[in-house]
What we know:
Blueprint: E1 4-6, H1 17-24, E2 29-32, E3 37-42, H2 46-56, E4 65-67, H3 71-77, E5 78-79, H4 83-92, E6 97-103, H5 109-112, E7 117-121, H6 126-135, E8 139-140, H7 155-162, E9 168-171, E10 182-187, E11 190-195, H8 201-208, E12 212-213, E13 243-247, H9 251-263, E14 268-272, E15 284-287, H10 294-307, E16 315-319, H11 327-337, E17 342-344
Parallel strand pairs: 1-9, 2-9, 4-7, 6-10, 11-12, 13-16, 13-17, 14-15, 14-16
Antiparallel strand pairs: 2-3, 3-8, 4-8, 5-6, 6-7, 10-11
Helix pairs in contact: 1-6, 10-11
The chain binds threonylcarbamoyladenylate and magnesium ion (MG).
Amino acid sequence: MEKYLDLKNSTDYSKLKVAGDIIRSGGLVLFPTETVYGLGANGLDKNAVKKIYIAKGRKQDNPLILHISNFSMLHKIAKNISKIEEALMKTFWPGPFTIILNRTDIVPDIVTGGLDTVGIRMPSGKIAKELINYANIPVAAPSANISGRPSGTNISDIFDELSDKVDYIIDGGECEVGVESTVVRVVDGIPNILRPGKISPEEIEKVVGSVKIDEHILKNIESNEKVLSPGMKYRHYAPKSNCVLVYSENNEKMIKEIQELAKKYVNPLIISCNENAEYYDVEHKILYGSKDNLNEIAQNIFKDLRKVDEFEPDIVIIEGVKEDGIGLAIMNRLIRACEYHYIKL
Ligand code: TXA
Ligand code: MG
């Protein structure tokens, strides 16, 4: 059987039936969503879900998101839904928004890492939606990458690390958003953002009048600290090379700091916005997009982080962005990529 389906330039979604059947019968499928690629399996089949953890080398206590394509699937896997949770789902679904809800008994323990809650998302990406429709069950899917690596936003970035571990590959080209979904858990009536994404704190606040940003989004976790989301604990997105993040609201100040820092190294690599590139006199530069277009930067950031090791730099210096809107998500990923080496001026 041909294992690869090319839907980059085709809208013949009826071809997704094959992939839906593979998921239903316990196989693993690499598929695009509007955020990042997912590594999907039947979310109600514990043996299928186990294959995800093995393929990714993922820690068993880090729970997975169940992806659904309609509200009747929701009520099979979640219960005791509050008015606020309902309002959030109605506003942001389908889309890059994941909500943590109380789970029902049909959700296997392996999906939730033994927690009594489950993360649920209804993606808006057409391929993801049709795939879930064909599978006709909730699809468990983490980001498609070996644990710790940057999430995959196109097939060529993840082909080598995952192709021989999956039963089927759907190529839908580049993901539109580029960073994973916003993860929210409502605690005492207030939505807590556990992982920032395209759906911003500002947008969430507009729906329910309040929002809390978990303090661990931009800060390291002490070894004995309890966190609301297990994923926060793990090393993530980091290239092999040593990385440092630099940011100031004052652009000139930021450029100067980066210039000075770069001089201390033999083979520095600088990742910056297009506009600032001309100020850096180094051999290796990666431009992540215009500083006036945070959506573009979000779309490129994982792809760019995947490129750095090939230059074998002795330091990677990355320009930060303002934390507005999707900027908070970009900074959350960059701080982790730099393993909390962050110079804020
Ligand atoms: O955009 C996305 O969300 C992508 C695409 C494929 O949909 N998926 C994704 O999954 O990013 P993953 O597994 O890479 O990240 C899921 C995050 C982890 O940080 C995990 O700890 C958290 O969601 N999570 C899942 N279930 C949870 C729960 N019950 N309670 C708290 N956090 C949970
Ligand atoms: Mg992930």
